[in-house]
Design brief:
Layout lengths: L1 E5 L2 E7 L9 E6 L8 H10 L3 H7 L8 E5 L7 E6 L8 H21 L4 E4 L11 H15 L8 E6 L2 H18 L1
Parallel strand pairs: 2-7, 3-5, 3-6, 6-7
Antiparallel strand pairs: 1-2, 4-5
Length: 182
C-alpha cells in the first residue's frame, strides 16, 4: 500500500477488492442506463445483494461524468456512489479527460454532500471502456491536487486497483509525481 499525504486528506493506493472496503462510500463504474453489468458493477451488485439492481435501474439514465448515490445494502461501505465513465475515443482525448475528471469531481462532491469521510475509487473506465491507465493518472492527480484547495468532509481517498498491473502503474506514477513535488 502506498500512502500519500495531501493538505487536509490522505490518499491510499493499493490492490484489493473494492467490495470489501468498509466505511464511507465505494464508487461503482456504472453504465449510463444504470443496468447492472460486468466488471466493477457486476462485482458490486453481487456483493450488495439483489436489492441493489432494481434501485440502480430506477436511477437511469445517468449522463457520462455524473454521479448518484444508493445505500450499500450488504456491503461493508455505507453508500455506493455510481458514476458513468467515458468510453475511450482516440479521436477525442481532451473530451475523454474532461469526462473522466467530471466522474472523480462529482463523486467527491456527492460524498461531501452526504457528509462521508472516506471514498474508494476503482480505476474508472480502464476496463471494458478501454481508457488507457497511463492517461487516467494525470487526470486523477489533477483532481486530487484541486481537492486540496477545498477539502470537504472526505479525508481519506482510496484508489483501489483490481489487478497487480494497474496497481503498479498507479504507484509508479504517484511515487514519481510525489517525489518531484516535494
Amino acid at each position: 500500500m502506498m500512502i500519500l499525504q495531501f493538505k487536509g486528506f490522505t490518499v491510499r493506493i493499493y490492490q484489493g477488492d473494492l467490495t470489501q472496503v468498509a466505511g464511507g462510500a465505494i464508487v461503482n463504474a456504472a453504465n449510463s442506463a444504470m443496468i447492472p453489468g460486468g466488471g466493477v458493477d457486476g462485482a458490486i451488485n453481487r456483493a450488495a445483494g439483489p436489492t441493489l439492481a432494481p434501485l440502480q435501474r430506477s436511477l437511469g439514465p445517468v449522463a457520462v461524468g455524473q454521479a448518484v448515490a444508493t445505500p450499500a445494502f450488504k456491503l461493508a461501505a455505507s453508500k455506493i456512489i455510481h458514476t458513468v465513465g467515458p468510453r475511450y475515443d482516440l479521436q477525442q482525448p481532451r473530451l475523454m479527460a474532461q469526462q473522466l475528471q467530471a466522474c472523480y469531481v462529482n463523486c467527491l462532491k456527492l460524498a461531501n454532500q452526504l457528509k462521508l469521510t472516506a471514498l474508494a475509487f476503482p480505476a474508472i473506465s480502464t476496463g471494458v471502456y478501454h481508457f488507457p491507465v497511463k492517461l487516467t493518472l494525470p487526470v486523477i492527480a489533477a483532481v486530487l491536487d484541486n481537492y486540496q484547495q477545498q477539502v470537504g468532509t472526505v479525508r481519506q481517498i482510496d484508489l483501489v486497483n483490481h489487478t497487480r498491473k494497474i496497481n503498479q502503474q498507479y504507484q509508479a506514477y504517484f511515487q514519481q509525481l510525489h517525489l518531484t513535488t516535494r
